[in-house]
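Trying the structure run again after the queue cleared.
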Amino acid sequence: MLEDVTFGNNTFIATGGAGIIFSSNDNGTSWDNVTLDTNLTFRGVAYGNDTFVLVGQSGTILSSDNGTTWDNRTNTSVTSKNLYHVGYGNNVFVAVGIDGTIVTSSDNGTTWTSRTSGFSNSLYNVIYSE
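Done. Tokens:
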């Protein structure tokens, strides 16, 4: 099952369960399977500042500059909670998840900081608008 899709750098990225990652650089006509060898569900993906960021189960965070090779940015000391979505705006990636979890990165998804949301409910989406 696919969970999310984003577009950047002339590439669509779609994510889902069982480590699914698909990419397309021909406007979605054909898709390449770049699925990672994992049973984790990837819930959200965003693009900003020439970087894709993907989030998911157990605090998983990955980043990529091309949508094909992914760097693991997961840091369980920041969060090990399920992350449901990630957005980009004002030079900051923001990921949200279970139990009001919010984490942010201002360095293209390399390092992340836990933020206090004041909510105990799950947060399912984040969006930036000017």
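The mean pLDDT is 95. Worth checking whether this holds up in the mutant runs.
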